[in-house]
Amino acid sequence: MTPEDAVLRAAEAALADGDVVTDPDIMATYSVDRSTGSAVGEPFAVAFPRTTAQVSAILVAAHEHRVPVVPRGAGSGLSGGANAIDGSIVVCVERMRDVHTVDVGNGFVETEPGVLNQELRDTVAKHGLWYAPDPASKDFCSIGGNVNTNAGGLCCVKYGVTREAVLGLEVVLADGRVTRIGRRTVKGVAGYDISALIVGSEGTLGIVTMARLRLRPLPPPPTTAVAVFADVASAGKAVEAIMTIVTPSLLELMDRTTLRAVEAFKPMGLDTDAAALLLAQSDLPGKAGEHEADLMLEACLRAGATEAHRSEDAEQADLLLGARRLAIPALETMGDWLLDDISIPRQHLASAVAAIERIAEKHAVVIGTFGHAGDGNLHPTIVTPRGDTDAAARGLLAFHEIIDMALAHDGTVTGEHGVGLLKRDALGQELDTSAIYLHRRIKDAFDPHGILNPGKALPHW
Ligand SMILES: Cc1cc2nc3c(=O)[nH]c(=O)nc-3n(C[C@H](O)[C@H](O)[C@H](O)COP(=O)(O)OP(=O)(O)OC[C@H]3O[C@@H](n4cnc5c(N)ncnc54)[C@H](O)[C@@H]3O)c2cc1C
């Protein structure tokens, strides 16, 4: 029996009928995430466990037979992290979908990993509580994926990324052992913070089967401010100015290319002549929120906004937020696309967006830039005519130049989408030799046979 057959048998023995799939068409669907430009391999099976014990049974067999395992949530990742590897078993947790406990008094929820971000938000909202991290993909990404990519989102500028919300985790380790790490308390410093290490580890250290997540009281309805700019660099300056005077609950940027793509995708009356649009919110209650929004508008006008106003109409504010969330789907329809994800210190935003414009011009490609500007997190998306391989090659050069530019601006090669397959070289550029050594030792300690998502998320060594 081959190692793959042994793992398949073990998985079939542990899981219910229909929960282990070898049909090539179904496997193909579960072999790719939403990224472009990353390699996709062929798995020999896709397993859909429903319990921690079932995940463990698969890993015991995979560890014994040295078979690669690709953990998968909802497959909305943008770095190839959940893409299948040749000869692997994909372990997709989408059928682990229960929210176990909402502890109102202590402000946390315990949930299985396959629950979608928005499903969790809806569940805890019934208790008057709020889960803050809100990726633009919240309707179709899972909590397990959010934990493993340390996902950011629109509210993260005020409330922090997924890491800030994770109190504890249940993790199945590479050899099938199950560990519960973290805490139930607000404070706690016992031992190394292993949950924090798992957060953002992109399925390379274990499979998360439960997450204990911090909740907050539901915030009041936000006050929204909108500002329009005749050049993107001024919008960058406005972001820097805003962040020195207030802490908005949201501060998002869309440039003209993105605005036009969204308007073409779903007409909603966006100002497509604007070079950039800033969308800001305050979730302070009542007059305090209005005051904070006004301070942001004044900062925008001082930075050169051609128009800045409070959106008095909640429906219009929702429309604008919806437009921001449509940025990726809209740019996708324009041609072949390659999405970058960099983060830079906010004082360099203006200079970074100007550099991105120069890079687009130099390589004769279209780049739509949008992102969580308050976090300095930009998603320059390179679009080339469909099937034009020369243009795609120029796009790739632009992609790498954007990464170099981010590092030259004291930034990082990925703000929230993760390393996956797409940014392994870039990670090698960012880390020094000692940090690469530590990554290697940590990976070896968790996964001595290197079966968990091999070839992903780590620099080459
Ligand atoms: C339109 C669009 C908008 C987006 N907006 C944002 C945004 O605002 N912010 C943001 O951060 N991201 C965003 N993303 C990217 C993506 O949605 C996030 O990275 C998300 O966290 C991935 O979740 P997922 O469940 O789809 O994970 P997957 O894509 O399935 O997996 C992502 C990684 O996590 C690992 N993994 C998944 N589940 C587990 C588990 N239970 N245990 C161990 N490892 C696991 C996988 O191996 C992989 O490495 C966006 C994507 C799209 C398509």
- Output the CATH homologous superfamily of the largest domain: FAD-linked oxidases, C-terminal domain
- Low-pLDDT runs: none
By oligomeric state, this entry counts as single chain
Number of strands: 21
Instruction: Give the CATH class of the largest domain.
Output: Alpha Beta
Give the cofactors and ligands: flavin-adenine dinucleotide
What's the alpha carbon Rg, rounded to whole Å? 22 Å
Describe this structure as you would to a colleague.
The protein has 461 residues and is of the alpha+beta class. It is 38% helix and 19% strand. The chain has helices spanning 3-14, 24-29, 52-65, 117-125, 143-149, 156-159, 162-165, 194-198, 232-245, 256-265, 286-302, 314-325, 327-332, 349-362, 389-408, 424-430, 433-446, and strands at residues 20-21, 45-47, 69-72, 89-92, 99-103, 108-111, 129-130, 166-172, 178-182, 207-214, 216-217, 223-229, 250-255, 276-282, 307-311, 336-339, 342-343, 366-368, 370-372, 377-378, 381-384. The strands form five sheets. It has a seven-stranded antiparallel sheet with strand order 15-12-14-13-19-20-17, with helices on both faces. Strands 5-6-10-8-9 form a five-stranded antiparallel sheet. Strands 1-2-4-3 form a four-stranded mixed sheet, covered by helices on one side. Strand 5 and strand 6 (108-111) form a beta hairpin. The radius of gyration is 22 Å and the shape is globular. The two termini are 32 Å apart. It binds flavin-adenine dinucleotide (FAD). Residues 33-34, 71-78, 81-82, 93, 113, 135-137, 141-142, 144-146, 148-149, 151-153, 202-203, 207-208, 328-329, 416-417, 453 line the site of flavin-adenine dinucleotide (FAD). Flavin-adenine dinucleotide binds next to strand 3, helix 5, strand 10 and helix 13.
